[in-house]
UniProtKB/TrEMBL annotation:
Belongs to the NmrA-type oxidoreductase family. Isoflavone reductase subfamily. It comes from the Eukaryota. It comes from Populus alba (White poplar). One of its GO terms (biological process) is lignan biosynthetic process. The keyword NADP applies. Keywords: NADP, Oxidoreductase. InterPro entries: NAD(P)-bd_dom_sf, NmrA-like, NmrA-type/Isoflavone_red_sf, PCBER-like. CDD domains: PCBER_SDR_a (cd05259). GO terms for molecular function: oxidoreductase activity. This is NmrA-like domain-containing protein. Residues 2-302, 307-355 form the NmrA-like domain. Pfam families: NmrA.
Length: 454
């Protein structure tokens, strides 16, 4: 049976990912929360998500020893994901675990560098030392443990490339600490959560450091920038900050910039993510232990930030820069350009790689507006062009004050039946009654939906 897990600090940044992974993996999952957290509007989305996942809430407090012991006695494993300000207070959790006497394993709040193998300067040195002191306290009490060294969160560092104040990857220039050659490790938060939960009941991770260092996510800053340049099709100006200058910047900066810079010095200058070998005596590597986990690579993660620069009226940019890089195309252009979507269609045809999606005939179910009986007219674009040409319209007197052949006039339901015959499989027909459709029109302001009812 899966171990019962208690989270302390579970509504925080990394905590919410690991709580979700625990619940989805089938572990009876408990989160220690204060009453104020349950009613805090800022936490409502996280709390509601936990409720939907079947997470159990235990009211208590890190500073209330009795509530800690009571909560811990209900579980097998304790995972702490408390924030920086509460790291030193984890000795309270250690004391409660010792008194409860039933915990099979404790995961203290780590989820960064291996704090026993760093070459840091202040203020990062003190932060790392606090985590290291908690390790020693756990070991001194004989509490079974797993320390998770997940290195950098992609959501913190890949979003900005560690550029102070930035909220997106650079587009013109990039500041690189040191010479850019030491390798760092970047992991998506969901993957960190998955690996952590897999380790809970794994005897191979007992009393070990679980390093999350997938090969595809271990990369130097120089190579990271080169990868990004390739994605955006542009060369960035690289501004290198020598170690001497960086140390001066750290001393002159205030909180929190000095913390960010000092961690950057540890990782990007001293290479503290990768400047040692993992020995079986103290550690194991997650992607080797769990090769079945499909983790998000750095390459894949960066794709979400790529903007493809092109123009609706530049056929080459549509075909080469956009269509050939994707599987599905969604057009959201305004009304004045609706007629120009034929340019998108032409580009899709030439690209030849766009998969059938909502723009292709459906194969499982179909939504029919109204009862499907009013007739509509469907004409191929080429036929419309032919009929409207000078030869057929302007010079043909029989077309004056008249309508065209009814051969392309059909019921919506008949069109569906024709498609069923061609496809050789039934479709689920979902009819939207006029009353509901009118509500949808009012809500969505899509007047053209009325075509199939009138």
């Amino acid at each position: 049976m899966a171990s019962k897990i208690l989270f302390i600090g579970g509504t925080g940044y990394i905590g919410k990912f690991i709580v979700e992974a625990s619940a989805k993996a089938g572990h009876p999952t408990f989160v220690l929360v204060r009453e104020s957290t349950l009613s805090n509007p800022a936490k409502s989305a996280v709390i509601n998500n936990f409720k939907n996942l079947g997470v159990n809430f235990l009211v208590g407090d890190l500073f209330d020893h009795e509530s800690l012991v009571k909560a811990i006695k209900q579980v097998d494993v304790v995972i702490s994901t408390v924030g920086h300000a509460q790291l030193i207070e984890q000795d309270r959790i250690i004391a409660a675990i010792k008194e409860a006497g039933n915990v099979k394993r404790f995961f203290p709040s780590e989820f960064g560098n291996d704090v026993d193998r760093v070459n840091a300067v202040e203020p990062a040195r003190s932060a790392f030392a606090t985590k290291a002191n908690i390790r020693r306290a756990i070991e001194a009490e004989g509490i079974p443990y797993t320390y998770v060294s997940s290195n950098f969160f992609s959501g913190y560092f890949l979003v900005s490339f560690n550029q102070p104040g930035a909220t997106a990857p650079p587009r013109d220039k990039v500041v690189i600490l040191g010479d850019g050659n030491p390798k760092a490790v970047f992991n998506k938060e969901d993957d960190i959560a998955t690996y952590t939960i897999k380790a809970v009941d794994d005897p191979r991770t007992l009393n070990k450091i679980l390093y999350i260092k997938p090969p595809a996510n271990t990369i130097s800053f120089n190579d990271l920038v080169s990868l990004w340049e390739k994605k955006i099709g542009k060369t960035l100006e690289r501004i290198y900050v020598p170690e001497e200058q960086l140390l001066k910047n750290i001393q002159e900066a205030s909180v929190p910039l000095n913390v960010v810079l000092s961690i950057g010095h540890s990782v990007f200058v001293k290479g503290d993510h990768t400047n040692f070998e993992i020995e079986p005596s103290f550690g194991v590597e997650a992607s080797e232990l769990y090769p079945d986990v499909k983790y998000t690579t750095v390459d894949e993660y960066l794709n979400q930030f790529v903007l493809l620069h092109g123009d609706l009226f530049d056929h080459e940019s549509l075909v080469v820069k956009a269509k050939r890089q994707v599987d599905v195309v969604i057009s959201d252009i305004n009304r004045s350009l609706l007629g120009d979507q034929v340019k998108i269609i032409d580009a899709i045809k030439e690209a030849g790689n766009v998969k059938p999606g909502a723009t292709a005939a459906l194969r499982d179910k179909v939504v029919i507006l109204g009862d499907g009986n009013p007739k509509a007219v469907f004409n191929a674009d080429d036929d419309i062009a032919t009929y409207l040409s000078e030869q057929w319209m302007i010079q043909e007197p029989r077309t004056r004050s008249s309508t065209l052949s009814p051969h392309s006039t059909s019921f919506h339901s008949t069109i569906v039946s024709l498609w069923l015959k061609k496809m050789g499989k039934p479709l689920k027909r979902i009819h939207v009654q006029e009353e509901q459709l009118l509500k949808d029109i009012h809500r969505m302001n899509i007047i053209s939906l009325a075509l199939y009812v009138d």
